[in-house]
Specification:
binds iron/sulfur cluster, 4 domains, 43% helix, Nucleotidyltransferase, domain 5, disordered C terminus, six-stranded mixed sheet, alpha+beta
Length: 515
């Protein structure tokens, strides 16, 4: 082997045309063409006639943000650096180098554009025959919020603090004018909002008279944060009420001051953290994301209807020819009834069917008792019939009870019902859920349901490629923009791979041509 010459000191390295350095099937050209489809006229018109420094083209910034996301870069500082060091970014920005602050402000102001670009990616995928809407999968995952657990404050403390601030409003406004957002008399400058609230609450409940020079100052910004947090408290209460929650009425509600829109949720590892529930709707042909949503409800129980209705609106399709695939977390009486009444073809196993797949090792678990909808009885693992006995209403649900007198003489009694002579099976499902259960017992429907696993791919992309294990922004609307950006980049990557593979197979000079 011949040794290559060390050419350190050779500075004439770069061709005069940047395109000579970028492969002609690079994803940046796809991004360029896709963003060219967006109408920026109205947005750019806002800048016409403005005095001061020139603003960067919003089209160029959109290309930049999407390309960085495709490369798994979520930091605006790193994105800004790429415009100075990376030829692809230099090309997409036409040699301009916006600062990281410009990029952050752009993301904050124009995040809504991503919804339109997501729709464009779906249109391109449909043209490329990657989306046919034959099978659509729904799934949710819990993502940690960018909210510190240590900034969580109780509803009572928030209300009391707001009341005290209200009473002293005049003085607060005067102090705002005097001190701005900086500080209050007698209070160290670096006291957090939570510490201020705690201190205020403590003072109000203490018997000591509070002197003027010890008064705690809240800036307008901080008062807004308290008001936002109180609004979220009301939302939590309304949501609990809507779901007919059985939680105690006097249960204390806590919200995070750093992101009040986050909620306490338990993740797959069993850890309870301030989080959001991310819902993805995916076409199962090639795994293209059709819709992504951030919601504040820990469970998927109430998500099927809003996700399907949102999708129908986005696609302008009634979805009556589509198969709707979702896991048992979406199997509630309301959701299954909604599918039935909307004429939609659902494939959603019951909880018993889902746990049966996982718990073959427990032969006497409820999942191994077979329900016969026509005869209205259960059959136990020892082939005994458990006839229907009665129905009672517990909280919001009707429950049917089944048992047999044969348990006391059964050879499996100690394993099945060690503490009682009766193994009682309680049946929670509605008639529509029973019909769905029956449907999902059929082999061909189980086969169809297996394709639901494709819905997991975009989550894997979000978590492993985009490192989306925690939101990087705060506030539910900004997080929605963050999700839309990831859905856009996920779809672009899949479409680009698909098209370039086709091109590699059939063309001499592969290039993205389909937009
Ligand atoms: S204990 Fe009763 S329910 Fe259980 S296996 Fe025996 S007969 Fe069936």
């Amino acid at each position: 082997m011949v040794l290559h010459e060390d050419k350190l000191g050779q500075t004439l390295l770069i061709p005069t045309n940047l395109l000579d350095l970028i492969p002609n099937n690079h994803a940046c050209f796809f991004v360029q063409k896709l963003v060219d489809e967006v109408d920026f006229d109205e947005i750019h018109a806002e800048f016409i006639g403005n005095a001061g420094m020139k603003a960067y083209s919003r089209r160029m910034l959109t290309r930049l943000v999407i390309m960085a996301s495709i490369d798994g870069i979520r930091s605006s500082r790193k994105t800004a650096k790429l415009t100075e060091e990376n030829v692809v970014y230099m090309y997409l920005c036409g040699g301009d180098s916006p600062s990281y602050r410009t990029i952050i402000n752009f993301k904050n102001e124009y995040g809504h554009l991503l919804e339109e670009i997501l729709a464009l990616t779906i249109g391109v995928a449909r043209e490329a025959n990657m989306v046919n809407l034959n099978e659509i999968g729904f799934d949710g995952t819990i993502v940690k919020a960018n909210a510190s657990s240590s900034s969580v404050v109780s509803e009572n403390d928030l209300k009391l603090a707001r009341e005290i601030i209200n009473e002293g409003k005049k003085a607060d406004i005067e102090e705002d004018e005097k001190y701005g957002d900086e500080r209050g008399d007698g209070v160290p400058k670096d006291l957090t909002l939570k510490e201020k609230i705690k201190k205020l609450v403590k003072k109000s409940t203490s018997e000591d008279e509070t002197s003027d020079d010890e008064k705690i100052h809240f800036s307008n910004k901080e008062i807004d944060k308290i008001d936002n947090a109180l609004e979220e408290v009301e939302k939590i209460k309304n949501n609990e009420e809507m779901k007919g929650s059985t939680e105690k009425e006097d249960k204390e509600i806590n919200v995070s001051l750093s992101d009040p829109s986050a909620r306490w949720m338990k993740n797959k590892k069993g850890k309870i953290e301030q989080s959001f529930n991310v819902q993805n709707t995916v076409d199962l042909k090639e795994g293209i994301i059709l819709r992504t949503d951030v919601v504040q409800d820990q469970t998927d129980h109430y998500q099927l209807k809003p996700q399907i209705e949102g999708l129908k609106e986005n696609l302008n399709e009634d979805l009556k020819n589509s198969k709707i695939l979702a896991d048992n977390g979406f199997n509630t009486g309301e959701s299954i009834e909604y599918l039935h009444e909307s004429g939609l073809d659902g494939f959603i196993p019951s909880r018993a069917q889902a746990s049966k797949d996982k718990s073959n090792t427990r032969p006497f678990s409820k999942a191994n008792f077979q329900y016969n909808i026509d005869k209205n009885h259960y059959i136990c693992p020892n082939n005994k019939i458990l006839p229907y006995q009665n129905t009672y209403k517990d909280k919001r649900k009707e429950k049917k009870v089944y048992y047999t007198n044969e348990c006391k003489n059964c050879q499996y009694k100690n394993e099945c019902t060690p503490k009682s002579n009766y193994r009682i099976i309680t049946h929670y499902s509605t008639d529509f859920q029973d019909l769905m259960h029956q449907k999902m017992e059929q082999k061909e429907n189980k086969e169809i349901y297996k394709r639901r696993m494709i819905v997991e791919r975009p989550f894997a992309y979000m978590k492993h490629v985009q490192n989306f294990n925690q939101t990087s922004t705060r506030g539910i609307w900004k997080i929605q923009d963050e999700l839309n950006l990831m859905a856009v980049t996920h779809n672009i990557t899949r479409i680009h791979n698909h098209l370039t593979n086709i091109d590699h197979d059939h063309l001499e000079n592969p290039q993205i041509t389909t937009i």
